[in-house]
């Protein structure tokens, strides 16, 4: 897919092993910001859709078919946003991310992308969205960052709207294998040293409730690691 970049001069990037990373006090994100990373995120999205056989868990299918306004928070290269915009042409999809690698002009008309930092004021009015989806910010938000982000998402969600947040429980790996186990131990140490919560998946229900959301529910699904079959291969 061709990507377009909006102007994003605010954040200085540094090169390390030919990869580009954020170098800004305003951005805690640990992964690279470059075209290679976009490719990984796109593949990851397709693996997730194949394994779970769905793109969302919230009870919003009927509303999406009729036409609602949706935010993909921390959308990355917009793989989920684009898929959903194609599946639900009556709904309007907005993707926001600190990274400026967004799908090019061939995107559907019901899809818009804008640069924004989830730990600052987002470029949307109060009560804009009926449904907010946020996936895999585990390496991007500190404890303080989660608090600010959830408060901002509460501001832009309409009363009665749904928010869906998907995060992996990286402390609870089954059948990961010794190498992946080592990677996770090193990653967890790095996260802890930067005040990035490692166990965010298990904490989310409490955190969203503390932020002011109501009727929070938790669902646990399993990703196949070192399993056979197409799903295992994709992961
Ligand atoms: C692992 S990627 C997930 C992308 C997408 N949600 C998905 O599931 O394909 C995390 C994304 O969060 C974005 N991100 C990290 N910190 C952010 C922040 N403070 N504000 C906005 N986006 C942020 C990154 O740029 C990256 O695109």
UniProtKB/TrEMBL annotation:
Species of the source: Mucor flavus
Protein name: Methyltransferase domain-containing protein
Methyltransferase domain residues: 70-161
Ranges in coiled-coil conformation: none
InterPro entries in the record: Methyltransf_25 (IPR041698), SAM-dependent_MTases_sf (IPR029063)
């Amino acid at each position: 897919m061709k990507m377009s970049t909006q102007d994003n001069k605010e954040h200085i990037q540094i090169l390390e092993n030919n990869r580009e990373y954020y170098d800004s006090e305003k951005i805690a994100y640990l992964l690279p910001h470059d075209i290679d990373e976009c490719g990984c995120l796109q593949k990851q999205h397709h693996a997730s859709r194949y394994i779970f056989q769905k793109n969302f868990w919230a009870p919003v299918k009927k509303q999406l078919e009729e036409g609602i306004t949706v935010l993909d928070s921390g959308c990355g290269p917009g793989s989920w946003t684009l898929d959903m915009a194609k599946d639900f042409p009556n709904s309007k999809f907005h993707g926001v991310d600190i990274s400026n690698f967004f799908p090019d002009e061939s995107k559907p008309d019901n899809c818009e992308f804008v640069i924004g930092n989830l730990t600052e004021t987002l470029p949307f009015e109060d009560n804009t969205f009926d449904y907010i989806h946020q996936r895999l910010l585990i390496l991007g938000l500190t404890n303080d960052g989660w608090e600010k982000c959830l408060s901002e998402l509460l501001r832009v969600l309409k009363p009665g709207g749904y928010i869906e947040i998907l995060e992996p429980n990286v402390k609870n790996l089954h059948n990961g294998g010794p190498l992946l186990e080592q990677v996770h131990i090193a990653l967890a140490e790095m996260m802890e040293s930067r005040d990035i919560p490692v166990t965010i998946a298990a904490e989310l229900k409490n955190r969203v409730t503390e932020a002011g959301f109501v009727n929070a529910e938790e669902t646990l699904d399993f990703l196949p690691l070192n399993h056979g079959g197409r799903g295992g291969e994709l992961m």
